[in-house]
Amino acid sequence: MSVSSQTSLPELHGHRGCRGLRPENTLPAFLHALALGVDVLEMDVVISADHQVVVSHEPWLNPAICLDPEGRIIENSPFPRFNLYQMPYATIRRCDCGLRHHHVFPEQVSERAYKPLLREVLAAIEAIVRPSGRPQIRYAIEIKSSPAGDNIFHPAPEFFLPLVLAEIDEAQVSARTTVLCFDPRVLRLVHLQQPDLATCLLLEANQPWLASIQELGFIPTTLGPDFTTVTAAPVHQLRTLYPNLRLVPWTVNHQCDMAALIALGVDGITTDYPNRFLDLVQLRPI
């Protein structure tokens, strides 16, 4: 399977770095995705007890991929046993989240890895990219926020957002960063406080595109829907009503789906397997 050279190619967004190949949201995943040649590094951020911005999808230790601070397996339970918002970062850093083999991703290489700070990830990537002369990488940073989690798993948006923006500003990557969120409250605050910063409204499969944009109250830079909802009719309607709105669906792991989305003219594809996208478009770096 391949894509015609006549086809306009979307951006390649490495989901949680490259979750299908390396432990998610870790330095090994981001560095490997960078080496593969992604255009955008996608990552998630949460907050520790001492207000550090930590790169992690869940605001707790996921028993499927993490060990506890003493290196022990975490038993599954109805309620998270290790809430990162109640743990200082020094304790979080002791927890390995790379050695356990992730059964959902058989190609993932297991290796020792911890949950890094956002500033650490940005510094590591920029130290490689800036001196190299290669096109500068872009960042898609998802703030893991929900009304139900306020002051339980994370601070409320008015406290959460400034912590993240401070790290982005300090790293001097604001012009190359998009803030993603399922929580409209966060995006409205970004639009109010830093209107020049790119935003992406993320949507679950059951959320209608147009009504969600209208509810947001402003037109974001990007719409990020579940890829299963991306078909010809809604894409045509979106392009007609919002011609400048970028469309970057998530999370697309099979080449047949990638090819279909490329044919629909999406602006980016978020995937756990950047290598599969590169094989599809026959642009794997030498």
UniProtKB/TrEMBL annotation:
PROSITE patterns xrefs: GP_PDE
Residue span(s) of domain GP-PDE: 10-281
Domain of life: Bacteria
Pfam families according to UniProt: GDPD (PF03009)
InterPro entries in alphabetical order: GP_PDE_dom, PLC-like_Pdiesterase_TIM-brl
Residue spans crossing the bilayer: none
PANTHER family registered for this protein in UniProt: GLYCEROPHOSPHODIESTER PHOSPHODIESTERASE, GLYCEROPHOSPHORYL DIESTER PHOSPHODIESTERASE
Protein name in the entry: Glycerophosphodiester phosphodiesterase
Organism encoding this protein: Hymenobacter negativus
